[in-house]
Design brief:
Blueprint: E1 2-9, H1 17-36, E2 42-45, E3 51-57, H2 61-69, E4 77-84
Antiparallel strand pairs: 1-3, 1-4, 2-3
The protein binds the ligand O=C(O)CC1=CCC(=O)O1.
Length: 93
């Protein structure tokens, strides 16, 4: 199943810099693990925002939920998930 996911990150303004830096480093490492598994084929920065849009390729919504909640920044993100299916007008490539 393909899912479009938008993640908006909101770190508390009073979070110490070293805590934020550690969270970001752990987020990057976990994101690399998931990408290497082939389940996170696209990850894009939203220009001008601390947000990303991504495409995930997973077996189920449960699997996507497990991946998203495994991200260290998950407690600080607003996540919007859209399930995708093939558009009937799409040209075969
Ligand atoms: O910076 C972000 O958009 C949050 C994030 C998701 C994966 C990652 O490495 O950072």
């Amino acid at each position: 199943m393909q899912f479009l996911v938008r993640m908006d990150v909101r770190l508390p303004h009073d979070m110490p810099q070293d805590v934020a830096d550690d969270l970001r480093a752990r987020e990057k490492a976990r994101a690399h693990e998931i990408q290497a598994s082939g389940r996170w084929p696209e990850l894009w920065r939203v220009v001008g925002q601390y947000a990303n849009v991504s495409r995930f390729d997973v077996e189920s919504g449960d699997e996507l939920h497990q991946l998203l909640t495994s991200l260290p920044l998950f407690p600080y993100m607003q996540v919007e998930v859209t399930a995708l299916t093939v558009h009937p007008s799409k040209l075969e490539s």
